[in-house]
């Protein structure tokens, strides 16, 4: 079997097309994020075989010019949403050397094997959670299961109650799960700040003789 996203998601092809078709009809009269061409951006940037880390989000940012298909990431030049600002605070506190945060775009992480997956891949403007019933979660739960099945040693970063629920899809005996509260200002103080997930992830990768992640942004 060739381990490409195209082959692995073949079983879900028609369901994915069905969801996309439904959403594209709604795009005619309302703003939906991210844009059509960026809905599967995470899959294009991180090949299945290259996955070392998974950071799971719930749904995309719901304001204009923010979401571009990577969980927690925004386009270059866009101001940092509160959760992303807190992620950067934790990175700088956790890894004090050679970290440069030059934008809120996390594509540099994706290209190193950090799969930035939202469970729900689209959202209507100013309506968080608005596409929760469209069927995206069945697709992305399947994706998580595939990663768990065919990989070992992948580090799953599950932040917040929603993400933690996905731990039932992950075999702790072959992959790693690190959990904390969500980086949102409403909950970051509970356990996200000080979680040191970025240095812990790199230590796990070193143990497996894998290249560590450079958590800087470009």
Q: Kindly estimate the percentage of residues that lie in beta strands according to DSSP.
A: 5-15%
The separation of the N and C termini measures 35 Å
* Count of DSSP-assigned helices: 9
Strand order of the largest sheet: 3-2-5-6
Radius of gyration: 17 Å
Poorly predicted sequence stretches spanning 5 or more consecutive residues: none
Could you describe the largest sheet, including whether it forms a barrel? 4 strands, parallel
Q: How much helix is in the residues?
A: 25-40%
Shape, per Cα inertia axes: globular
Structural class by helix and strand composition? alpha/beta
Describe this structure in words.
By secondary structure, the chain is α/β, with parallel strands linked by helices. The model has no long low-confidence stretch (mean pLDDT about 95). Strand 5, helix 7 and strand 6 form a beta-alpha-beta unit. The chain contains nine helices and six strands. The chain has a four-stranded parallel sheet with strand order 3-2-5-6. The radius of gyration is 17 Å and the shape is globular. The protein has helices spanning about 5-10, 15-25, 40-45, 80-95, 105-110, 135-150, 160-165, 190, 195-205; strands at about 30-35, 55, 115-120, 125, 155-160, 175-180.
């Amino acid at each position: 079997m060739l381990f490409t996203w195209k082959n692995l998601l073949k079983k879900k092809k028609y369901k994915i097309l069905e969801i996309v078709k439904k959403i594209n009809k709604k795009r005619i009269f309302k703003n939906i994020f991210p844009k059509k061409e960026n809905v599967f951006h995470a899959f294009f940037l991180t090949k299945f075989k290259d996955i070392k880390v998974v950071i799971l989000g719930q749904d995309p940012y719901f304001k204009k010019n923010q979401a571009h298909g990577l969980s927690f990431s925004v386009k270059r030049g866009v101001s940092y949403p509160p959760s992303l600002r807190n992620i950067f605070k934790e990175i700088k506190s956790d890894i004090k050397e050679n970290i440069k945060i030059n934008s809120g775009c996390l594509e540099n992480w994706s290209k190193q094997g950090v799969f930035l997956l939202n469970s729900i891949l689209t959202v209507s403007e100013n309506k968080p959670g608005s596409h929760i019933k469209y069927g995206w979660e069945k697709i992305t739960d399947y994706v998580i299961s595939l990663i768990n099945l065919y990989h070992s040693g992948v580090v799953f970063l599950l932040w917040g109650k929603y993400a933690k629920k996905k731990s039932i899809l992950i075999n702790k005996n072959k992959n790693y799960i690190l959990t904390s509260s969500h980086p949102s200002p409403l909950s970051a103080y509970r356990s996200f700040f000080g979680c040191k997930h970025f240095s812990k992830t790199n230590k796990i990768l070193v143990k497996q003789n894998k290249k560590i992640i450079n958590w800087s942004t470009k």
